[in-house]
Structure prediction request, 571 residues.
Amino acid sequence: MATKRQRRIVRVTLTYLICLLALFFFISPMLWVTYSSFRSTDAIFSGRVGTPAGQFTLSNYATVLSVTDFPKYFWNSLRIGVLVTVLSMALSIVGAYGLSRYPIRGRNAYIMGVFSTQMFPVVLLLIPIYTVLFSLRLFNTIAGVVLGQLMLVLPFASWMLKGYFDNLPKDIEDSARIDGCNLWQTLARVVLPMAAPGVSVAAFYAFVVSWGDYLVVSVISQSQTTATVTLALQRLGSALILRWGQVAAATVLTIVPTIILFSLVQTRLVEGLTSGAVKG
Amino acid sequence: MRPRIIQENSGLALLLPTLLIMALFSIFPLIEGIRLSFTDANLLNKGARGVGLANFAKLLADPVFWSSLWHSLILTGASVILQLVLGMILALALKQELPGIRFFRSVIMASWVIPVAATAVMFTFMVEPGYGYVNIVLRLLGIKANSFWFGDLHAAFPFMVLLHLWRNVPFYGIAFLAAMQAIPHSLYEAADIDGSGPVQSFFRITVPGCRNMIIVMVTIHVLWTFNNFDMVYLTTGGGPVYATEVLPVYLYQQSWISYTIGYASSIGTVMFVLLMIYFLIYIRIYQKQQG
Prediction:
């Protein structure tokens, strides 16, 4: 029988071993790409890990930002991402609140229905969506891309927020209603301040899905005016064959916004993402 | 109090915008997609004729379809099972209150938030022979293997599983951590007094305590992985020689490269039917367990 002390040593060693391996496996690729984005082409192709002091360079970033159309795509992604986030939050806050607080007949069927749309193959849906957007004259427009991405975001965002609203105390709302606040006033002044952590995570989720979407954009966007960073990254990858320094710089620029937002919400991320699940 | 019927109507009114968008961009396209799978619709020709089950007959005789189906099933199964096991191990490490663990918790989910397109480009760069990170690390470890792994007939598919692990395991780890933290500490103390070891405690307390989270994570990841398109498309495009071809990628190629949207839709219909079967089995098991 192992003593308490021996057990503790084993536990601590194993923990740090797992952490080290995990950091190496999950984090080091991102660090490597960031590091490579500051290296000259010669240094990258040398196959060595180190870089001589004089060979660090910002020229990869300079090229991506001035020679290619990357900034344009970055701006498109930003606009689309913000629109998707704002619209999906407006829709899913109101919808999830309705689901959570009102006695709707067949409520569970709605929740099940919303959730089961996660089961639909998006690649299949895009064929008819292409036709719908074409006839609405929204094909190859920012609005079309936003609508397509809303379809990706809404089910999970609604489910997440409904779980979050279910866990909030209801008595404060009730007293607000008795004091004469209407639905919108109650939502804005009482519910949203309480739900802010959950909403921020849902908004983060919406933005990250929109920013990272390749599939919807690749079908709906047909020109520079609507193309996003993910399309640009894929095209740069094939256009700049072997100019890996520049590709690495573009990759870093694509990753950075998501990492910044992630650092803002990370402590709340888990609770928010899984609020529907912990309760069961 | 207002009458129930008015309350119900205002509840529905709140839901309406979401329902409208989902109806127009999810439910209608699903029905229309299934309908198209019984036609010879083609993006290059106007007007489509009904062809009955011809597309499905063609599918049955299409070797690429069968290998894509097989790859999709294996990729989903292998990824989800490995993610579950590794996510559990990761969560056990994350749970320890030791110096530095807070930092570890805060950075570990980064791979999940970055765009898949960035992951794809990053790993394509990393598996380049000679100067790619993967090959450099292998060389430092003294392993003599130097290959463009996505172009390797035998390595490409395992690498695809690895990419899914890279993206999702931290999410599992953090989610299981949340579930573990909700388990009352007194349960472990009681088990300790009863003389049960750490392994027993893990299987008798930790795993049952994470049950709901395990169910949710497995369910959504089966759906997400089976439907996932960009990870494969943006790294190998299904190659080399269809070694990593999966159903979503095959469907995409059939509709947006060959323009045969009728045939492409029949692939999507098969995918949907398979996911339906999975979902129904899941509901059955879930209801049985609820009594």
Notes: Chain B is about 75% helix and 0% strand. The domain at 62-289 of chain B is CATH 1.10.3720.10 (MetI-like fold). The two ends of chain B are 36 Å apart (CA to CA).
